[in-house]
Amino acid sequence: MLTPRVNRNLKIRWEEPFLIIDDVLENVDEFRAQLWAEGNFSHAQGSSLVPDVGPSHNWRQVLSSEKFPAEFREAIAEFQMVAPDERTLYNTNCLFSDMKVETRRARASYYPHSDWHGEGEIPIVFNLWLHDGGGGTGFFTYDGHHSLSSMSPELRHFAENYIDASSENLDEGSALQAYNSDFRGNDEWKLWKVAEMKKNRAFVYCGDLWHRVLIPRGEFTYPNARYSFVAFSKGGSDRFLDQSGARKLLAQI
């Protein structure tokens, strides 16, 4: 079993529409080493780091809830303002500045996207940075809309087709750094918030908000990864949406 120990002296604040928690774990370095030692990185979405590795838009470990002590899972659920739920998904994300992206699905992951797919409850995402570094997660609007659910069906079609068309235009095997670092908006997409990376900091957010990874050019080169731990709740999001202020960003405009 993995042994993350939640700090008793957490530093918690709201930065609408996020909950920011600093000094989350007493043993973040130990936890990072434990996660890395688990191995079993998946490469299922179409990119490669070096010719002998891949494919994936990132390296990802999918982790069962049984890997974690109950008190850790309960603490995450409390941050997400949901009841502990067996439907919560746990994984890591592991990316590099020099990763090669080879499929349209993988490329689209690096443009603004929503973790909600148009039906069911909106997920609340807990993201824990496992080291220091530049960049973080950028949040965008499309034509003034902060989220997929705030759009009419017609506008959703334009936003999603933009992502598909833009990713299709990239040359086969283009380096991630060639566009991942540079894309911070255009006439349709506007960057409005950045959740900055900081070791042992978690930020909790509504997964329907348009967001994308921000990686400084050349900072995370193999084998030094941009590595984070993530938990996706699958239900009971009302309290978080109301208290965070995210609810108003989801309303139909």
Beta content: 15-25%
Assigned CATH superfamily: q2cbj1_9rhob like domain
Major pleated sheet: 7 strands, antiparallel
Helix/strand structural class: alpha+beta
Helix content: 10-25%
Number of domains: 1
Main CATH class: Mainly Beta
What radius of gyration results from the CA coordinates?
Answer: 18 Å
- Supply the number of helical segments: 7
Question: How is the largest sheet built, in terms of strand order?
Answer: 1-2-10-7-12-5-4
Query: How many DSSP-defined strands?
Result: 12
> Do you know the CATH topology?
Jelly Rolls
Spans of at least 5 consecutive residues whose pLDDT stays below 50 are: 44-57, 171-179
Under the CATH scheme, the architecture is Sandwich
Quickly describe the structure.
The protein contains 7 helices and 12 strands. The protein has helices spanning 28-38, 70-80, 104-108, 153-168, 177-180, 238-244, 247-250; strands at residues 11-15, 18-22, 47-48, 59-63, 89-95, 100-101, 124-129, 136-142, 189-196, 202-206, 211-214, 226-232. The strands form 3 sheets. A 7-stranded antiparallel β-sheet has the order 1-2-10-7-12-5-4. Strands 9-8-11 form a 3-stranded antiparallel β-sheet, with no helix packed on it. A two-stranded antiparallel ribbon has the order 3-6.
